[in-house]
Design a protein that fits this description.
Blueprint (H helix, E strand, L loop, with lengths): L6 E6 L2 H10 L3 E8 L5 E7 L6 E6 L3 H6 L8 E6 L3 H10 L3 E2 L4 E3 L2 E7 L5 E7 L2
Parallel strand pairs: 1-4, 5-9
Antiparallel strand pairs: 2-3, 3-4, 6-8, 7-8, 8-9
Length: 130
Amino acid sequence: MKRNIGAITLVVKEYDEAIHYYVNKLNFKLIEDIKLNDKKRWVTIAPENSSETTILLAEAATQEQKKAIGYQTGGRVFLFLHTTDFWKDYNDMKSKGVSFLEEPREEIYGTVVVFEDLYGNKWDLIEHKN
């Protein structure tokens, strides 16, 4: 039996601005954008060349959901973007205006840097040591 996480929900302010950010700044691919009704869409994205887990962009519909935008994990790093070419991705993202909260650093597990997305969610960009 094989099990995996298919998608993780990320609450966003607005579908199109979120799609634009993740596709154009982080080089994600838009996998699905299906209109479900006048207000709701099924929008999934994933890093290029990734097929396991996707991110479901969910536009906030209530005040409670709006409060969670950018703060889904209470200010901790929320998502971990793995790469096999840290410096290429880091320099590309930096040139596109991605906000890094620190300088890249070497840890025992690899090269890592914390950045935040357009809503303030914290991410780690990591290249693991082999």
